[in-house]
Amino acid sequence: IKKTWVEMKDFSRKAVEMGRLDPRKVIFAIKMGLALSLTSLLIFWKGSHEDIAQYSIWAILTVIVMFEFSIGATFIKGFNRGLGTICAGILAFCFAELSVVAGKFEEVVIVISIFIIGFCASYLKLYPTMKPYEYGFRVFVLTYCILMIAGNRTREYTEAILTRLVLIAAGAGVCLVVNICFFPIWAGESLHKLVVKNFKDLATSLEGCVNGYLKCVEYKRIPSKILTYQAADDPLYNCYRSVIQSTSQEDTLLGFATWEPPHGRYRYNYPWENFVKVSGAVKHCAFMVMALHGCILSEIQAPPERRKVFSSELQKVGAEGAKVLHELGNKLEKMEKLSAGDILKNVHDAAAELQKKIDHKSYLLVNSESWEIGGRPKEFEDLIDVEDENMTLGSKSLSEAVLDLRSVPVDTTSLPQQCDDDARNMFIKWPSNVSANARSFPKGDDLKTYESASALSLATFASHLIEFVARLGNVVDSFEELSMKANFKDPPIMNMSPEPCKKGTATWVV
Amino acid sequence: IKKTWVEMKDFSRKAVEMGRLDPRKVIFAIKMGLALSLTSLLIFWKGSHEDIAQYSIWAILTVIVMFEFSIGATFIKGFNRGLGTICAGILAFCFAELSVVAGKFEEVVIVISIFIIGFCASYLKLYPTMKPYEYGFRVFVLTYCILMIAGNRTREYTEAILTRLVLIAAGAGVCLVVNICFFPIWAGESLHKLVVKNFKDLATSLEGCVNGYLKCVEYKRIPSKILTYQAADDPLYNCYRSVIQSTSQEDTLLGFATWEPPHGRYRYNYPWENFVKVSGAVKHCAFMVMALHGCILSEIQAPPERRKVFSSELQKVGAEGAKVLHELGNKLEKMEKLSAGDILKNVHDAAAELQKKIDHKSYLLVNSESWEIGGRPKEFEDLIDVEDENMTLGSKSLSEAVLDLRSVPVDTTSLPQQCDDDARNMFIKWPSNVSANARSFPKGDDLKTYESASALSLATFASHLIEFVARLGNVVDSFEELSMKANFKDPPIMNMSPEPCKKGTATWVV
Questions:
Q1: Complex ipTM over 0.90
Q2: Residues of chain A contacting B178 with CB distance shorter than 8 Å
Q3: Nearest to B286 by CA among B454, B474, B499
């Protein structure tokens, strides 16, 4: 019993916490209670009339199914409810006449008509484009059946239909008034916020990936949740996963938002679908961030020394990319157009620099020892060795990027001593049946093959980053389309310094 | 009017088509009609009793909300319905006593209690872990309100509650009997099929990507739907997109499947969550296929000649990978354990071969002209030129992979003449402000940078493929876990030749 008590306390603590974090939930619950009480008051007030009290279930039922979290959803449900009821009413009226004509076989006609209606409605509601009206079909069948059965009993088809319609209208009216007049919760606004959040999440993930890669973060044991694409604790992973997973939520919100009347900053006929498009472009970038993270998760890792060579360029591209995302996110939040001048200029410059660096140093990305055209010539090898030594000693080298290198003999094995064990583990998983049958550290040919694969993985990381930058252009394009269509306001005059990328905003979204 | 008529005809044609493709939908609709007719028959039969006819809405309502496509979903709804009703009944009983005590303020007590109940239920149903019981909360509030209001009118709380419970039980009984006894549709089976389909879709996508890459498929204009991650017509894209998008569908089906009783090949307490886990591992692979497709979509393309060099190895890895996926998919479909022997052996061999080839020919993946350590030595350059010439002439070269090469001068520009225009377009989008301000084809330094990026993109493709193979191991692991837990049957004795990867199965899933 004590355990249950503790659990209960824990649960209520969490429930209160939920309300504190998202006060809209509390507001929604209060509004729901209010709508129900109002409806019941209405019924008590008019309760002298027998019919109204008897059919009060229709008003209550309407409130309960129509009252949804966002206003768009309430409108859709209301529309479904109304249309379904009216269609069912008309149809019931026709069949009622028919059943009366049938005389003795009245019940038979009714049961058969119910079967036919039930069949048609259930079949049509499975039709793909009918999905948003699923609820309407339910209401339709329900109303039809009730009208037929109850009408058969009381013989007052017309009155039954009218009383119900009035009660449903009353319930729907209460719903709409309460939902719109008291602290409305708009689906459009949620969609807007979700897309902004996607921008910020992705920026966080991108920075995390690049920094993690340069810091040579390695997963001792990759959580199997990541390997099976389930939610995991890794914040880096969660950020981009939530971006990718937001598709269905966006689609739902889009469906609601298009039903909402103009409100606040959102005018009539607002291009909501462009928000989803921008978010789709962000997702297209997110897949590249996922690929970057894949390089960190990968079993084949580039040696830290070589990463260091490209470190400043990689870091720059990552930082500039994240800056662009943050800026776009902020612009979207404030609903501003892009400032004059190319927002992508800095990140393109950084990418071009990285590309040049790769071009100049691509000998570091391959392993020339086993070239079948005869290995690398002697003087050539000496040059690389010289560079490696420079790197190792941390002295002035040809590369501008040498920062802080550990004195590890690089040319005997490109795997530093201290992560030997990890490397061994990695190698065991590395798909080569030679290494699989011998748990000993692989030697000779295999080691070289591994070395070259490991160096190439750095090239992969860099190309992903460059591809990410290329895809950013796509995001900017769709953002511009949105800002034109939605008529965002012009940015403030630019003699204030360009907005710095605040660290604070990054932590807000985590 | 004629247009409407044509549209109607088109719609009904499509609706019939839908039934032909998935007969389960027709069956579902028939069952729904049947359940409704049975319930109405029941009501007519017992209709002599006034109460039953008056409250018949409860039975009909129960059928309409409980009758879901799959049996698991029906069980969940039924459970929610039952629990919600009983809780509401008990609570209504208590508050009814209270309201009677209140005397004159009876209505006030009722309205306040409705507000409190409405608030609590609406708030708690937003609690994340309460999501599957959302419907239960609705039923709870509905029943509570109706009982209080109706009870207040007739003063017969107990009888009202009991009659309703009986009617709800009758409706639920009809639902369950009809849904389980006539052509049951199991969520578990759908989940099983969905996971199998994911395997086959991914195999199709993988083969398509590798073949497309080797055939140098290029998108003239990448459909903007792909760039914004929307559904598009591209079959290759659709296959892996559907794999990645299946997450939410799987979660829903998993929720239903765990509620289903043992049936057919699925015994009690079946490890359904392992199916989702396997599918998650498949998704983890799908992200690599997506990255492979990204190489085809990318603005920077490797020159076809160099792709040809690695063609046979790449092809082999792709084919073997798809074979493994097909085989796993077939095993899963038949619920068989893996055969003795390493299913991954062939694909690992192929990957190791590819890796060696890369190792031996990595000079083709970089552009040594601009190395800052002094460019490549003369004799070295000659060697590459010789190789390039050999490739161009299609004569016996050092590479085993030369198949069918066009005679294009390779060393002046690595972009073949015929796709010059495309390349130019691509280059315009390539993030470099140098190329952005001049629409002319870039020259000199930039061209070289582009060349090296383009060669490296081949390396990226190859590493993706190898990473894909590494991730396959993960799929096999989770498959084995599933086959242990679910107690799959042993494979047939192996003296029949290992199952060939039929082309037919691949077309089935498209």
A1: no
A2: none
A3: B474
